[in-house]
Amino acid sequence: MANSKYEYVKGFEQNDTLLPQTWIVIRVDGRAFTRFSQVHGFEKPNDMQALLLMNECAKAVLEDISDVVFCYGVSDEYSFVLRRTCTLYQRRASKLISLVVSLFSASYAMKWTQFFPETELQYAATFDGRAVCYPSESILRDYLSWRQVDCHINNQYNTCFWKLVGSGMSTAEAQNTLKGTTADVKNNLLFEKFNINYNNIPPIFRKGSIVYRKQMDEVVKVEKGEVIKRLRAHIVVEHEDIIHDGFWTAHSYILAVGSKNKQQQALPRPAKPQLPSSLP
Amino acid sequence: MANSKYEYVKGFEQNDTLLPQTWIVIRVDGRAFTRFSQVHGFEKPNDMQALLLMNECAKAVLEDISDVVFCYGVSDEYSFVLRRTCTLYQRRASKLISLVVSLFSASYAMKWTQFFPETELQYAATFDGRAVCYPSESILRDYLSWRQVDCHINNQYNTCFWKLVGSGMSTAEAQNTLKGTTADVKNNLLFEKFNINYNNIPPIFRKGSIVYRKQMDEVVKVEKGEVIKRLRAHIVVEHEDIIHDGFWTAHSYILAVGSKNKQQQALPRPAKPQLPSSLP
Amino acid sequence: MANSKYEYVKGFEQNDTLLPQTWIVIRVDGRAFTRFSQVHGFEKPNDMQALLLMNECAKAVLEDISDVVFCYGVSDEYSFVLRRTCTLYQRRASKLISLVVSLFSASYAMKWTQFFPETELQYAATFDGRAVCYPSESILRDYLSWRQVDCHINNQYNTCFWKLVGSGMSTAEAQNTLKGTTADVKNNLLFEKFNINYNNIPPIFRKGSIVYRKQMDEVVKVEKGEVIKRLRAHIVVEHEDIIHDGFWTAHSYILAVGSKNKQQQALPRPAKPQLPSSLP
Amino acid sequence: MANSKYEYVKGFEQNDTLLPQTWIVIRVDGRAFTRFSQVHGFEKPNDMQALLLMNECAKAVLEDISDVVFCYGVSDEYSFVLRRTCTLYQRRASKLISLVVSLFSASYAMKWTQFFPETELQYAATFDGRAVCYPSESILRDYLSWRQVDCHINNQYNTCFWKLVGSGMSTAEAQNTLKGTTADVKNNLLFEKFNINYNNIPPIFRKGSIVYRKQMDEVVKVEKGEVIKRLRAHIVVEHEDIIHDGFWTAHSYILAVGSKNKQQQALPRPAKPQLPSSLP
């Protein structure tokens, strides 16, 4: 409605549209979470309640934005995969990032009491966000593998570290003990010194969390002894390996996109088909 | 710590650094606030409690980010001015936008009960954000004027509109009555039909809200009859005209930046001075 | 070598890196070529010599930049396809665009006399350039099809238009005659009125020009009656249909890229492989 | 005219508009000029003819683009300053860069024979380009100072280096002799060993070249003994100090821009003035 001689300042806004037809990953990262987790007494190296709260926030994002098809979370970070054909906000990076960050941050504050009924939230947990485009499904999967390998390496190290510290070492001594050790050495240390089989540690710690709309057969009714089923999608939180092909083969619908025709329609400036009839 | 063959995916992240030495404005806008305000029973055309909550969130942002020097809010939007020399997050747009949006959104959820003790928050209020650079103080001031003129025009229209609707008109009739009318006609309508002097409407509705660190003389002590004062900054919320020069002249420290030397130091890649001695 | 207190100004340069692993198309377009072609007496609607000069400039670009794998030219424009794995100039848009434009523009001036020995070059022909990323081979092919359809539609129209004008019509009359006509109507008009079979028009006019490194069997020697051949690449200029699959199936090596491993190596920040051994 | 189902590919083109109201500097740099200068027998450390050719190309750019207000050249590079209010090509970086590079490169090829009548151009000299925005006149001047200090430091070093090599040193010995020496030491070396007063070296080598439209009083006519003059602009090439204020004070019109009103009109989306009459 408003219109004034000052309106020219709108011309300074710059375009930040993300390349069409690429997978968009928006990752949120906790800001200064080392301090936040100390202030709120999070357990080391993993606080189950804090992770469950993160997962709940991710669900809120998935529920709200239909273009989000997959989420992966570890520690104080969460990655959201937006489908390749997404045209929400004309794919403007600032809009997409701020929407995800806003939903995630507000949910964290709102759901805090559910997960920490005895601990008062001292101040707002905040998250920064970024958006990255991946041109193919194969590179997108490498991105997700990167985060899960990261989860594994960090968790293995942190598990050893806090066990050593718990056993009386100083943090400097624990660091020195682990410096340069391979994964096998760390596993042996856990097993021999602390009687811990690393593979028995809860999967949520070892593999992080995935959130997606899982297609499941649902019994609709039983008619004349015949079971009538229907495919239905439910939002689930799981802790699966997403590096190898198994998960993706079993759930190929997650990254599937429609026909090529659909791709074109999904573009900001849709084509007005009019192929010349006499093309050789 | 982690390092894997998948790490190459980091190379897809694109740089979104904002031009150095320009004023950065980050504006957050309520997402689908028409619905949000209906669900939560906000008063029309202005809900005082909702505006006070917005101001409180803006204060949280100003308190947290020292580079924010001025905030202007109207309705469900808030603009944050970051000083020209800001190098926070290397001026990366996505980081700056997400930080402000995260702080604002989380604060809104956390402080809700303070302002709406009787109304349960049904779902998270979310905000999108954008960052715009302005190369000079003069253009930055035009930006702020643009928002305040917008506030004025919208508020005048909405005040008339809801008075007409309150007096029994349908929304369509009210729209028709106001279509194309000048500011004077609207003011007359308010005065003659509803006995309202527009200028007596609370300034927070007519002018929006500004938040900044106000420098004030503070009495430190009285010694031998002499009053010892000190200049101190306090965060204040006011409803002043920011279009004309008056406010800015009285508070010239708000947009002041240090010497040129300081500007250079504030840059991402600081200069290593070594001017050739024999330059003519 | 130089280093001064002024060097901080380098920090204002902004990053314009193109998304990795996408096809880059750089298109150059003649600037004000309507005037340029009039001043230099180009034939209407197509000047064979001018097109051959354009092709020669495209060859110069292909010869110089090994990442250019395919070129398509029509009228005063030329598109250059850079392979998906290209990391030349770290994929900085400004560098890539300026390199192609510089090579093309300088070649045009240098080779002018070869193609127009009797016409003096009155002033420099100039070209603007742009870079666009396409995330998949399929969309890249749609880009090339778009340009070739454009060539066809424009050429058919222009052929009719200039025949009508040549037969005595004013340009306005010719425009009116052609307004809204289908391709069939235009073909009939050419055939019935001017005895021209559109399909007999030289392919360079109807289909534009492609330039690429063609792999050809070459006889190396004949030994004991046996012909020894070797595959060799030669730069060729052709006028083929590039919309249908035929051409691309026959020359699949043009857009082929190496193994996935190679893709990763081609990235700005190459991965340092170190997959954790105990990953489940 | 053309329009097809492939046209959707236009949607992949990304916006690269430069921030309004900032000074734009486009710098072109010779590509692989070490080799180019060897192939064409340029004199070391400075080839006068090559520099004059560069200046002539810069003049061609200044003549063609009215928004270019100042050019500074040294060695194989040239910087072009576009006025702050420039809206050519809607300030799209790729268009502006390619236009300057195209003009410069084509001119270099066309004008070669004028400056090297006896040397055949072996292959096209090519230039890459970049665009950088500077938000204030003061920072723009620092940019130009940076380039001129660079010219000075490089020229002083190169003059010493080639004199030493000319006197029989190997290039490695010359490098070692100069390593870490201050400007004074270099000047002394030139004076004592080679009897060269550095300040007597031609200014074009020491200070580079500037090209601009110089406002000069011109005698229009002499009437009844009175001389009638008029201010006229002529393109000139000079070799002045542009670091200190002197030059800029004497030619303040070069960087001057019109009134504020003009700034607004120069913006991509001009304002439609309609200030509310009753603003308090």
TrEMBL record, chains A, B, C, D:
Domain of life of the organism encoding this protein: Eukaryota
Record's function text: Adds a GMP to the 5'-end of tRNA(His) after transcription and RNase P cleavage.
Family: Belongs to the tRNA(His) guanylyltransferase family.
Sequence ranges assigned to domain Thg1 C-terminal in this UniProt record: 139-243
InterPro entries: Thg1_C_dom (IPR025845), tRNAHis_GuaTrfase_cat (IPR024956), tRNAHis_GuaTrfase_Thg1 (IPR007537), tRNAHis_GuaTrfase_Thg1_sf (IPR038469)
Organism taxonomic ancestry: Eukaryota, Viridiplantae, Streptophyta, Embryophyta, Bryophyta
Keyword hit for Iron-sulfur: no
Keywords: GTP-binding, Magnesium, Metal-binding, Nucleotide-binding, Nucleotidyltransferase, Transferase, tRNA processing
Stated name of the protein: tRNA(His) guanylyltransferase
Species: Sphagnum jensenii
Reactions mediated catalytically: a 5'-end ribonucleotide-tRNA(His) + GTP + ATP + H2O = a 5'-end phospho-guanosine-ribonucleotide-tRNA(His) + AMP + 2 diphosphate + H(+)
